[in-house]
Amino acid sequence: MMRILLFIFLAVFISCNKEEFKKHHYELVGKWKRIEVYVNPGNGGSWQPDRPEQPVTLEFTADGKLISNDNFYSNFSSYHLNSDNSIEFQPPLNGSLRAVYYSFNSDTELTLTFACIEGCGDRFVRY
Fold first, then answer.
1. N or C: which end of the chain has fewer CB within 10 A?
2. Confidence of residue 25 (pLDDT cuts 50, 70, 90)
């Protein structure tokens, strides 16, 4: 009897994991529009709405190209995903690589954070 219960438990557990993976298979490739900016003037940071009159866009192509209309992101022409949830942004010529950490808040919301004096970040939605 104990073996049957253990088998049923394992079967349910394994099937739940597969469903969770399918449900949360996030994809970086695509077009993104910035909706929030992390602002930290030195007294603690917070997420602030982006200026809608100047929407910043990012596009990650399947072949590793990075396309943007923003001054910071347009300094880089390609990207490489690392295993530690970071993206290595690569400049078009011999310049400095930039490590940017990413996380998905949902299937359609992406957060990018990177080092700067007080901490920097951008939040995007897929469009």
1. N
2. low
